[in-house]
Specification:
This protein has about 230 residues and is of the alpha+beta class. Helices cover about 30% and strands about 20% of the residues. The strands form three sheets. It has a five-stranded mixed beta sheet with strand order 2-1-7-3-4. The longest helix is centred in the middle third of the chain and has 14 residues.
């Protein structure tokens, strides 16, 4: 007899939610750290993707309990989730709930047959620049929503300035207009910090400020801080 599919296990109600909505339920959009077979952090995926890997029996859940990490296959994780839901209603975390089933979103999964370490680097893009600078204008020091921020070349491109981590910063629209095509010195402006290429994913660093992702730290040594988020 073949193993039931992911959607069979999570109940028909979830399948309906996924097909009727343009976006996944928030719990299934939360992030899950992926380890390779050797317990090295290699990637971050959505909870939905993590459940897909678990249902195919190519991954297991790694859960932090009483100061140690414990592994569960998908069936065991579902049983544990239902037990926690019945007896510990205040357990923190993201949950997928339907009429018939309740399953907790894991924070970490481990691939059972993959032992490579992909070569990754922090991508130079708008999202990572905003994350590196914490949505803060690097001239006036105020935070803004992304819709009110722009990117500024510290040394203007008209002066030979390049599009690099060391020469591009977040700037609010007012400061960007004020600076114009000049250098900060010419405009009488000062950067609040020197722009540098981050050693780790800025978005991953933001994730680690949230309590629910603290268990990731045990697997994120300096050598693996460049994990990219999808």
């Amino acid at each position: 007899m073949s193993m039931p599919s992911l959607m069979d296990r999570l109940d028909v109600a979830i399948r309906g939610a996924l097909t009727m909505r343009e976006k996944l339920p928030p719990a299934l959009e939360s992030s899950v750290l992926v380890l390779n077979r050797l317990y090295l952090a290699i990637h971050v995926v959505s909870a939905y993707r993590a459940f897909c890997l678990l249902s195919k029996n190519v991954a297991e859940v790694v859960d932090f309990e009483d100061g140690q990490f414990v592994s569960y296959d998908f069936a065991s994780w579902q049983e544990l989730s239902e037990y926690r839901a019945r007896h510990f209603q205040q357990v923190d975390g993201d949950w997928v709930r339907t009429v018939k089933r309740t399953i907790q979103v894991p924070r970490i999964i481990r691939l059972l047959y993959y032992d490579r370490i992909p070569r990754t680097s922090v991508k130079f893009n708008r999202r990572n620049i905003f994350a590196r600078d914490n949505n803060t204008c690097q001239y006036c020091g105020r935070r803004f929503p992304t819709s009110e921020l722009s990117l500024d070349h510290v040394i203007p491109r008209s002066r030979g300035g390049e599009s690099t981590w060391e020469n591009v910063v977040c700037a609010c629209l007012e400061c960007n207009v004020r600076k114009g095509g000049r250098t900060p010195k010419e405009a009488g402006m000062t950067l609040i910090r020197k722009p540098e290429k981050p050693k780790r994913s800025p978005i991953l660093a933001q994730k680690l400020t949230q309590a629910k992702y603290q268990s990731w730290k045990a697997f994120l040594s300096e050598a693996y801080w460049s994990v990219e988020l999808k």
